[in-house]
UniProtKB/TrEMBL annotation:
Pfam families: DUF7920. This is DUF7920 domain-containing protein. The lineage of its organism: Eukaryota, Metazoa, Spiralia, Gnathifera, Rotifera. Residues 77-351 form the DUF7920 domain.
Length: 467
């Protein structure tokens, strides 16, 4: 049975810190669903708007009778940044995960926004995986002027894939909605996942299995509290899923199965001029995540006067992707999000992408050509970030040695294309071990010659604001 709001409030009073209880009450006040007609209008707008695609699927009748799930996304060739960058309306309305549940109740169609994830946010030079950004573009993704910022919280960015969770209470039981950025499914148990056999559902099913594994580990009362919280407060849970079978840059070989890393909550409420990008502050969200025994990302409070040092330290760090900065106003609204990635990640990803081109069937270039492409890219990265010549030479030496090691083993059929596509970090670690090499290259970035304009912009903006 779903817990009542009073039961949930009582539970939070007993288990949450006092400073976060006010946010729960504020969340409750703002959790009222938009009318079914409002959600229907949003769906119609999406269907009739250029560069927006709606994919509709019938839900198997034994899961939910006479129901349809509508996934909404930006559609374009290549990265979707160009659409978000140029269209303020799409930035405001389309999150990175939008799903509407349509239910036919005795001839009357009802519409519910069941997934409404984080809105698009960005980074600076080197902080985007698919494009190179211009100075200042990140400000377009803030809800308010930077002068409204009163505090900053840094969350570690996991190197996986976006994953979402929500649920509804229907026919006296919970129906779970989970999925990746653009594809979601409805289910109640593991057997229900078998109904989604098409290839497009593969990652959504993987996420669904990870959700069910977590729910099975919870004590029954806590499981009911968690799902009831999502239903009564009308929330989407934002995760990153780490999958040891599809690794990107960080080595996930320590995992035996996919792991959901909890980040935050968002409200399933359409606000075309939202006050906040999240349902609550990151520290409140992570306290709730710990209550529900979720595996949470790392968090750090950032002092305004230390923002430049914090960002520089991230650039110099090793072994992980980076961080996302959450910018808060005086009312605890998250008014902006910003990526900042480690140099280690930026360089390894650049190597991976150059190798991807090198082993493609259409490639006619030699290994010498690849070395030149790597050298050119590292020169660009050095210019963005501002590390010194010695760092550049060490990274160039390591990169060139790796691609030659890889090329030799690849053409000897000791490394497969699947190894490269899904286990690049494992290959990188193997190379380091076999050649007794290291990628723990100390990065030296002098503030006096700081060329990372993104860091410089942020630190100047924050110093001009009285936090």
């Amino acid at each position: 049975m779903v817990n009542s709001i009073d039961d949930l409030i009582q539970y939070f009073k007993l288990n949450l810190s006092h400073k976060n209880l006010d946010q729960i009450q504020k969340l409750l006040d703002n959790s009222n669903n938009k009318s079914s007609d409002d959600i229907k209008d949003f769906l119609l707008w999406a269907k009739n708007t250029k560069n927006i695609k709606v994919v509709s699927q019938d839900i198997p009748s034994h899961i939910l009778k006479e129901s349809i799930l509508h996934d909404i996304k930006v559609e374009c060739r290549g990265p979707d940044d160009k659409i978000y960058d140029s269209n303020a309306e799409i930035r405001a309305r389309i999150a990175r995960g939008n799903t509407i549940l349509e239910i036919n109740n005795n001839g009357t169609k009802n519409y519910k926004l069941i997934i409404y994830a984080l809105r698009k946010f960005t980074g600076g030079l080197g902080d985007e995986d698919d494009i190179d950004r211009k100075s200042g573009e990140w400000k377009n993704y803030f809800l308010k002027d930077y002068s409204s910022v009163t505090s900053v919280i840094s969350l570690q960015k996991e190197n996986g894939e976006a994953a979402h969770l929500s649920c509804v209470w229907k026919d006296n039981e919970f129906a779970i909605c989970a999925g990746s950025k653009n594809v979601h499914i409805i289910f109640k148990n593991k057997e229900d996942l078998l109904n989604y056999s098409e290839q497009r559902y593969s990652y959504a099913k993987l996420i669904g299995l990870a959700v069910l594994r977590h729910l099975e580990k919870l004590k029954p009362d806590l499981r009911t509290l968690f799902l009831s919280f999502l239903v009564q407060f009308n929330l989407t849970v934002i995760f990153e899923i780490l999958n040891p079978e599809t690794q990107h840059v960080e080595d996930l070989s320590y995992l035996k199965e996919p792991l959901l890393k909890f980040i935050t909550f968002t409200s399933n409420t359409i606000e075309f001029k939202p006050q906040s990008l999240c349902s609550m502050t990151p520290d409140c969200a992570l306290e709730l995540g710990n209550l529900f025994e979720l595996s949470c990302v790392k968090m750090e409070f950032v002092d305004k006067n230390g923002i430049e040092n914090h960002l520089l330290n991230i650039r110099k760090d090793h072994g992980y992707e980076g961080v996302v900065l959450y910018f808060l106003d005086s009312e605890n609204n998250v008014i902006g999000l910003l990526k900042k990635k480690t140099t280690w990640y930026i360089i390894l990803r650049a190597i991976r992408e150059k190798l991807r081109h090198h082993i493609s069937p259409k490639n006619t270039e030699t290994i010498s050509d690849l070395e030149n492409r790597i050298k050119k890219r590292l020169t660009e990265i050095k210019k963005w970030i501002g590390f010194d010549d010695e760092d550049y030479e060490r990274w160039l030496k390591t990169s060139v040695e790796f691609i030659n090691w890889f090329d030799k083993k690849y053409h000897e059929n000791l490394i497969s294309k699947d190894d490269f596509q899904n286990k690049f970090p494992v290959l990188w670690t193997r190379y380091l071990n076999e050649t007794n090499s290291t990628d723990k290259i100390k990065i030296n970035i002098s503030k006096s010659v700081l060329t990372d304009t993104h860091i410089d912009e942020i630190s100047r903006e924050l110093k001009s604001v009285a936090i």
